[in-house]
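#random but structural
TW: two for the price of one
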Amino acid sequence: MHRAIKRTSKKAGQAPGTLIHIGERKAESVRITVIDYDEQNYQEKQVPSIEECVPYKTTPTTTWINIDGLHQVEVIEEAGKEFDLHPLILEDVLNTNQRPKMEDYESCIFAVMKMLRYDEEKGKIRSEQISLVLGSHYVITFQESIGDIFGPVRERIKNTKWRIRKLGADYLLYALIDCIVDHYFVVLEKMADKIETLQEQVTGDPSQDTLQQIHELKREMIFLRKSVWPVRELVNSLLRSESSLIDKTTEIYLRDVYDHAVQIIDAMETYREMISGMLDVYLSSISNKMNAVMKVLTIIATIFIPLTFVAGIYGMNFKYMPELEWRWAYPMVWVVMSAVFVGMIVYFKRKNWL
C-alpha cells in the first residue's frame, strides 16, 4: 500500500489527463494482438503498431485488440488518438493502482478490473490490472504483461459452434469480465486450502510461524477484498447503463456475472471471519499451553514448599535439637518427607489438578 501511494504521488500537481505510467514495468516490449471475427470468418494476428488496428474500427465484424505492456506511454497515447478515447481513460489505463470501476463515456464504455492468479511456487496471489474499452464493434484491452487467463475465451472465439461468434462486442466484453470473475473462484479455492491447513496447525500445535502465516493470510484477504468487492458495483453499473453499446440480450449474462460476484463476496467474508477466528483460537491455544506449564510449575513448587520447610528446620545449626541425637532421626525425616510428597500427589489427583 505504501509503495502504491508513493508511486501515485508522482502525479501530484499534474493536470487531469496527464499521461504518466504509474506501476511496475512487467513486459519487455509492447505487444499488440488483433482478433477479428464474425459468424463465418476468423483471423488472429500480431501487428507492429496501433495504426494497423484503425481499419477495424469501422468494420461490421467484432474486433478484439489486446495491448500487452503499459510502460510505453506513446503507444497508449496513440491508441487514444486513433480510437477517440478520452484523456481520463488513458490516464486511468496507465495508473495501475486503480480501484475496479466502470465509466460510461457515451461513445465508449470503460472498465477497470484486477486480474488475479495464484502463484503456486510462492504461495501468493498475483495481481494485474486490466482495462477494457467497449466501442461500437470492438473491445480494446490493456494489460500490464504478456500472458493472461483468457485462453478459454480465445478458444470459444475460434470455434464456430459457440454463441460468442454470433453476438457483438458487448458480449465479448461480458465474456472477458466473466472469465476474470470466474478465476476469482480459483483463487478463493486456493485460499480455502491454506485456511484449512492453518486451522489444523492452530488446533494442533501452533507456533510463532503459524501466527506469521495467519497475518499474511489476513493481509491477502484484505487485498482480495479491495480487488473483488467493487466488481459487484461495476457489473451493476453495466446492468443499469442505458448505453446503446450494450444490447438487451447481453443483460441476462451480466446478471449471471453479478450473481457470481455476490457469491464470491459472500465466500470471501466467510473466510475473513474464519481467519479472525483462527487468530482467537491461536491466542487461546498459546494461553492454554502457558497455563498448562504454569500449572505444572505451581504444583511442583507447592509440593516442595513443605519439604523445604522440613529440610530448613533440620538444616539449622542449633545445639539443642533432640531429634539430632536420635538413632532413627534421619530415616524418619525421609519417611515424613516422602509421606508428605505422596499425600499431596494423591490429593492433587483427586482434585483433578494433575
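TW: number two ↓
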Amino acid sequence: MHFETTVEIHAPHDQVWATLVEVERWPEWTASMREVTALDGMPLARGSRVRVKQPRMPSTVWDVTDLDTGASFAWRSASPGVATVATHLVEETAKDTVTVTLGIDQSGPIAPIVGLLTGSRSKRYVQMEAEGLKQRAERTA
C-alpha cells in the first residue's frame, strides 16, 4: 500500500517544522493519535524511537530512519510480515507558506492483506494528520 497527501499551510516554515517534529504533542491537534511517547527523549534524531498509540490500532514503536532538520523525516515500524514507512516533508513554497507532504508505504509478504484490512483507516489517519497540522500551525502563526 502506498498513500500520500499534500497540504498547503499558510504559516512560517520554522513554525510548521517545529509543530511537526514535536511528536509528543500530536494528540493535541489530530484525533488520529491517542498517545505519542518519545522513548529516547526529544528532540527527534536519527535512531530515535517513538511509541504511537492510534485509535483501533495496536501500540507501535517507530524508528526514525532519516532526518533532515527543517526539511523531512521518516520513520519505520515493523511487525511480522509487514514493514511500514511514514514520510514527512516540509517545503517552503512562498513567504510564510509551506507545502507538507505526508506519506505511508507498506511492504512485505502480508502487506497486501494488511492494506486490505487497515488501508482505508491508515489513509484517513494520514489525511487527519495533514489537516490537523495545518490548523495547528496556522492558528499559532
